[in-house]
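pinned: reference chain
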Amino acid sequence: MSRPAPTGSSHGLTSPRAASWRDRALCDGTDPSLFFPEPGVHSMRDAKQVCALCPVRLECLEHALSMPEQYGVWGGMTEKELAEMRRRRRRQTAA
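pinned: its structure tokens
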């Protein structure tokens, strides 16, 4: 599956609010393909290792959950993990 190429930064963020935390992210300036891996090039594990050490991981995760970002690793979570977290939040909100 082909994924959209990010624009402008490693995760393609453009809003001024997002830029404040993005500038402190470990992924800033990192090859975007690490976070939007194609099979056989990078693994999700490689991106998650960077995220695990990132001081703004939670801000990134909240961004991904609120946008919602559909592709790539955000806040240390894969696309499937993000989708599951969104479902859990919707269920909790509905309860």
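why pinned: The CA atoms of residues 7 and 13 lie 8 Å apart. The chain is about 45% helix and 0% strand.
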